[in-house]
């Protein structure tokens, strides 16, 4: 166990896109900052699960892969690499407020001391919602997939995608140009996605299989992956035979670490004020980890919350510094 005697101005917990940008912005404000990320690499869920997903909703970022967004954020962040401490593969196990208002943070590797904390851990630990039918799980990552790591793996294949949200539609549109055929299975005729994406879907060659539920998935080596479907609220059935099934029912998330740290929660999220500060003075939160009236869970929204939090805590730490009035450039 290493005991770091240095007192940081700020510790950002979470190295996903929002945490990375917040750390970069802290560098812009000349704050002595460390970034702690539990995964081995920066990028969070986008890097781990969606490196080839197309990102559409970040201002000024021409739609490109999640991996490109993460790489651009890294390049931006590393402009301040000499004045930032970046620690990957370390999970914060405790956040303890001291009598003087500072905080002690503990991981399995070290104990550090910081004047303020910014929580940017997203929705916490995550796991895909599985198919609600029993099937041979030896098919996972061979013919049944919950993530797409390489789009090229689906080239010239017939693919079924299960789901009706933004992720399912995004993958259907992404895979359409390279797959032999894409089928989208959803239990309703309406989709829970951005209107522009739904319009593109309806204008595409993706076959919409609605309103159907998956009742059985069986691998028949001579034929392929056989999916038994039943119409919602009815008895009619049909069979779909494909090469691969991509399941996009969303994720279950677990932010119980916040409760372990003793932070006040509302429905498993940090409640923050207009400055993105929690009920604990000196602890802030941004991104999908937080809630407030009108909260929108988008990467772009988290990017906007970062300067709000950083500027407020910078003024609290250094009252003599003036808050920037405009966007700035690095010389």
TrEMBL record:
It comes from Lentilactobacillus raoultii. Residues 8-298 form the FAD/NAD(P)-binding domain. Homodimer. FAD binds at residues 37, 45, 50, 92, 126, 288, 328. Binds 1 FAD per subunit. The keyword Oxidoreductase applies. Pfam families: Pyr_redox_2. Belongs to the ferredoxin--NADP reductase type 2 family. Keywords: FAD, Flavoprotein, NADP, Oxidoreductase. The lineage of its organism: Bacteria, Bacillati, Bacillota, Bacilli, Lactobacillales. Its EC number is 1.18.1.2. Its cofactor is FAD. HAMAP family: FENR2. InterPro entries: FAD/NAD-bd_sf, FAD/NAD-binding_dom, Fd--NADP_Rdtase_type_2, Ferredoxin-NADP_redctase_2. This is Ferredoxin--NADP reductase. SUPFAM superfamilies: FAD/NAD(P)-binding domain. It catalyses: 2 reduced [2Fe-2S]-[ferredoxin] + NADP(+) + H(+) = 2 oxidized [2Fe-2S]-[ferredoxin] + NADPH.
